[in-house]
Amino acid sequence: xxxxxxxxxxxxxxxxxxxxxxIGIGDDAAVxxxxxxxxxxxxxxxxxxGVHFLPDASPHAVAQKAIAVNLSDLAAMGAExxxxxxxxxxxxxxxxxxxxxxxxxxxxxxxxxxxxxxGDTVQGPLAVTITAQGFVPFEQAITRSGANPGxxxxxxxxxxxAGLGLAIxxxxxxxxxxxxxxEENKAFLLKRLNYPTPRLLTGTKLRRIASACIDLSDxxxxxxxxxxxxxxxxxxxxxxxxxxxxxxxxxxxxERAVNYALSAGDDxxxxxxxxxxxxxxxxxTLASANIPVTCIGQLNGSVGKLELYDNGxxxxxxxxxxxxx
Amino acid sequence: xxxxxxxxxxxxxxxxxxxxxxIGIGDDAAVxxxxxxxxxxxxxxxxxxGVHFLPDASPHAVAQKAIAVNLSDLAAMGAExxxxxxxxxxxxxxxxxxxxxxxxxxxxxxxxxxxxxxGDTVQGPLAVTITAQGFVPFEQAITRSGANPGxxxxxxxxxxxAGLGLAIxxxxxxxxxxxxxxEENKAFLLKRLNYPTPRLLTGTKLRRIASACIDLSDxxxxxxxxxxxxxxxxxxxxxxxxxxxxxxxxxxxxERAVNYALSAGDDxxxxxxxxxxxxxxxxxTLASANIPVTCIGQLNGSVGKLELYDNGxxxxxxxxxxxxx
Lengths: 325, 325
Known about the structure:
Helix content of chain A: 25-40%
Largest interface: A-B, 69 and 69 residues
Strand order of the largest sheet of chain A: 8-10-7-11-9-12-13
CATH superfamily of the largest domain in chain A: PurM-like C-terminal domain
Oligomer: homodimer
Strand content of chain A: 25-35%
CATH architecture of the largest domain in chain A: Alpha-Beta Complex
Order of helices and strands of chain A: HEEEHEHEEEHHHHEHEHHEHEEE
Shape of chain A: globular
Radius of gyration of chain A: 20 Å
Structural class of chain A: alpha+beta
CATH class of the largest domain in chain A: Alpha Beta
CATH topology of the largest domain in chain A: Phosphoribosyl-aminoimidazole Synthetase, Chain A, domain 2
């Protein structure tokens, strides 16, 4: 493995070919061009073995999830993705592992028409850091701070799936449910955990419609608080409105399903807010793009306060979102 | 440490204030503006405890080195730095450690007028990944691939210091030298190891003058080969011309000093090539900016071949640069 440059060997050929990449992998740094009228959007996320994925997770899934969670952050800003950089820490240069990881990476590079423009490899504990860069038209980025009292709260897709998926991946399904789970449901839930789909199209459609947006990585309760704090609002959330997949709902009792939806995180759906005036515009825009969204509550003026209701009755939970430390 | 966002708490206040940062730390991603006529330059590097710095290294130095090695990559492209993102993996949220790390980071943010625009924290083995972004005017980036046979080979500053610095940091100076080392020399060599200075001004001065450039991170022999391979050249290097500091030269015998200079890496000086026609232009430009450079050899047409001479005699060494795996 002497003189072995992993990035060069495993990733250069698969790195994509965008016209806006002037210098890609193989120099001291990458050189790229931003289109006129667009702002640069940048995000960085690290996935660490044993923390963000199970040590026996497939390298193919690890690569895809590491990219997806970063693209999800771009989606939450309304940005479209362009380039990624990779820092890979791995205990050894295991060729099988790297091939699988590289093929996972290449699939998403192709699918999203992005390009791997550089990176670094170190010998160490298994960890993947991706920096994703993209664009958004000037002044159209969707922040966490633009929401107002009265705005409606929406989420895309279904939530809570990845939480149960993690229990299944850890073989703990008997501990969380006495219902039997179908193989099909298990496969769906595991896919939601291991292969999250960043809501990139939704993000671009929400430009100039949503007042605020965040992606659900740490859990709804944890993540909505960022919007409440930064927008100086409170919120009521109707837990009877939470969009739960039939795979989740059929596999565990209702309270547990709701708990996953509120606190498990890792779903990478978007949570966003829309003024009453934009509601019609939103629904037309998303319906024409076939994007499933659900209104789950409304903002109010009680700064930082989050109230949960179940069919109009106050709902008590004692759960926290994901803690980084 | 509940609900404790390290990046927000320790780094937001110290992150700098650039007018081209529209959205900085605290949202899903950062939004920044690139000046017209400039290309974006991006690089990522990870420093891992026990590999790239000693486990007992001061957090202040770790922060500064992690930034410096990335800015050095921008310097090698002729770029000026603008923004950095940080992914910090740490075993615990140790307040003293984080304060020291954060103060080291802030000093460089202020010194280089850059801004920390985002990042991620994870609980894990101590590792610091920085992504640095900067600009270079369109078509003025300096690559590794533009050199031609006949071009002169230069390095900035002095090389080999960090190699001996590392031996001192590991308390191995008695094993590498039977000379006594002065405290002043030791301090200088340790500073070269722990606080490398990216050659940013030099990089910008070399635009349209240098034909190729790389920063010396893995050692001269290892790094020049990237230029030779990518530019399809060979080189002769005169080891009697290598710029050695008096601190290095006074502390070890000549052969070891040369070995450090050729192979130890971590000096973060620039190695660059200049055509004979540009030689005068180069020397005037750098002299007026008071930048020390030394011509150490010349390129030729023997593709990929590196020959070393000592006062005209072939010089044999059996050394390799830093191996990432």
